[in-house]
Fold:
Amino acid sequence: MIGTSTSISVDRDSEVGPKLELAGKAGCNAELIAERFRRDMLTGLARREKAVPCKYFYDEEGARLFEAICELEEYYPTRTETSILQQNIDEIVALVGSRANLVDLGSGSGQKTRLLLKHLDRPASYCPVDVALEQLLECSARLAGQFPSLEVQPVCADYTDPFDLPAPPPGSGSTTLFFPGSTIGNFGPGEAAWFLRRMAGLCGPAGGLLIGVDLRKSVPMLNSAYNDSKGITAQFNLNLLARANRELQAGFDLGQFRHHAFYNEAAGRIEMHLVSRRRQRVPVDGTCFTFARDESVLTEHSYKYTVGLFHELAAKAGLEVVRSWTDERQWFSVHYLKARQHGAHHAGQA
Ligand code: AVJ
Structure:
C-alpha cells in the first residue's frame, strides 16, 4: 500500500491462535501498488539510462528469494548484524527502554526482531511495516503467538512514502524504529539524510532509531556477496522481469537478460543491473521497449559506509549518534541514534 497505510488487528481469542483480520481491507490497496509498479516500470524503461526502483523486488516471490539470500555463505550482512545485536543486546535493550513501542521497517521474516523482542523489558507494541502483505501477515501472526502480551500492529505500507503509525498503547514507553539489514544503503546520499530525518520525526524526541549499516570492505568480498555461487541473487534480480510478466503482461524472456552486480568503488556502492544479451524489443503493458545488445537496466544501488561516513550522514540528518557497535572484523555496524535536542544543536554550531 503506497502513500497510505493499513493497520491490521489481531484476534487472539480464535481457536486457531492469533488470527489476523485485515482491518480496512479496502485500505490495503493492491491496485495502487500495481499502478505504481506499472507507472515506475514504464517511466524507468523509457529513460535514456534504464532503471527500475529496487522496492519492486519484493513481491511474494522476491521476498522469499531475499530470505534465501540471507542464508547464503557469501551474503555476510544478515548473520554479522545478528551477531552484533546478540553481543550487545544488554546495552541495546537499556537504550530502547521499558514498555517500548518497536516499529520495524521492512520487517521481512522478523528473525532479528524476535531476538530484540525476546530481550526487551516488557515491550508494549510491535509495528512491522512492509509491502509484502503475505510475509507481513505471517511474521505478525508468528510474533503475536510467541509474545502474547505484545500489541501487534502490522502496517502494510511502502515506508519510502508517507505512512501513518498506529497509536502506541496507553501507558507505553518511547518508540524505537528498527531499520536493520543496511537497507539505508538503497537510498542515495541526499535521500538517505532526508529519510533519516523523517524517521527521527516518527520516533520523536524520547524515542530512537536502531539501524544496521553495511561497511566498506575488500572489493572481492563485496562482489561475491551479490554474485553468489548458487545464483540466488541472480534469480532475485531477474524476478523483477518475471513480476512484470505476471503483473504487467510483459514479454520478458528471462533467458535473454543476465544478472550483473559489481562494487563501484568511486561511488562507494554495489550496483545491480539486468543486461540484455542481444538486441530485442519487449512489450510491457502494451508499450514496446527496445533493448540494445549489452544495454543494462539499473535495479539497485546498495551504498556502503564507514562508521565515520555514517556518523556524518546522521549529523546531516539532525540525528545524534548515541552508540555504535561493529563486529570484530568491521564488516557491519549497528547504531542507536536519537533526534538531536534543540539546545545541543546550537551548541554544535558554536
Ligand atoms: C535488503 C537492500 C539490504 O542491498 O544488501 C541483497 C538487498 N540485493 N542482495 C542489500 C540485496 C542483493 C539488500 N538490502
In short: The longest helix spans residues 30-46. Residues 83 and 327 are 8 Å apart (CA to CA). The chain is about 35% helix and 25% strand.
